[in-house]
Amino acid sequence: MEHFAVVRTLARAFLAGDATVDGIVARASQTLALGKNARWLPPLAARYIRACANQTRPRHRDVVQFLLRDRGFARAWAKYRDELTVERWLTEPQQMQPVAAAEPWPIPAIESIGALAEWFHLTPGELDWFADLKDLGRRAKDHPRLRHYHYRVLKKASGAIRLIEAPKERLKALQRQILSQILDKIPIHPAVHGFVKGRSIKTFVAPHVGQRVVLRMDLQDFFPSISGARIQAFFRTAGYPEPVADLLGGICTNATPRDIWDGADWDVRSLYARPHLPQGASASPALANLCAYRVDCRLSGLAKSAGATYTRYADDLAFFGDASFERRVERFSTHVAAILHEEGFTVHHRKTRIMRQGVRQHLAGLVANQKLNVIRADFDRLKATLTNCIRHGPVSQNLSRSHLEGRVGFMDSINPTKAKRLRALLNQIQW
Fold first, then answer.
1. Between 87 and 405, where is the model more confident?
2. Rounded to 5 degrees, what are φ and ψ at 347?
3. Each residue of 322-333: pLDDT tens digit?
4. Which residues, in sequence order, are bridge partners of residue 163?
5. Residues of 108-145 as b/e, b for ≥16 C-beta within 10 angstroms?
6. Which pTM value belongs to this model?
7. In the chain, N or C: fewer CB atoms in 10 Å?
């Protein structure tokens, strides 16, 4: 029997097993004629399980590479190759195989491409087009109507660039379905406060009020740094078979066409040219939180060992602690940066701040020294805007009523006393 055919079949059997030695051996025995002596198989299955422990469920090609590199299997092939034949090809669809931590997640079981197309109410061809695993949308330079996203390039005050990638209506509906029926069913790390129901900027900052020292760190290019491969790996971790996970990942990610950029440097173009989480898609915040679960666990553990507490709001990280943490905070920030680098994220070092009690401790636009409060300059700017709307009309400020009501409402959630004065000004505007 051809070596590679046996390897590919054995790899499918390993993936279809129940992640135990006995389960893998039983599955392999159904697909291969193992001959009289198969004592080499249980140790091989044990080595495979050890290699994949605490990792994402591997792809078929990764298991093939493991088998090709395994010396024990090479010796078994050399000795028993005449006895090893493919007895039955695995043609049935794979079953849901979540990792142990994902087994309680109440997510829908989708075990084939056809089932996924039916779940979305699409044809298989439409499913392929929306997932765009062949990267056709990025290359459709002369046919922008074939692209699934609208693009808007924003320049920050610092000179950096932010790209808003807003999905068109049909793709947006698919992403919302994934969000509501899969992602919202999966628990988020307790340290995370951004884009989580029942949590907010206020809950993110509140634990840090009145602390001896606050360390603030910022992640650079948070959404685009999460690659399409990482998203597909997450869906495999949740239990979806590889073809289904790849299509779910394709629907939730995007590769930006190069003609969108005017004058952007090579690093920015390269970052966005690969499949990544698009900032502007409804499923992206939840996926970013879920993909950062491991780093949240590591940073929470590091903070606990240093006598500190950790919270995160999207790309804003905050740590606070007492006098003992204050003495080691500089070295602690170095360890945080190292963990983030290991997990595929980059720290925006110019935004790192160590804020002791003698200075204004501010996080996400709020002050956290003695009590939770808004920044005085933000209050003054909004007050001036409302005053100008009263004097010259709201058209002069180019702001809508809902926008101003939202800003006043946010102030009210933080400092009702100050917000009462703003509300009085808002009620005087002639719309």
1. 405
2. -85, 135
3. 989 999 999 999
4. 153
5. eebbebeebbebbebeeeebbbbbbbebebbeeeeeee
6. 0.85
7. C
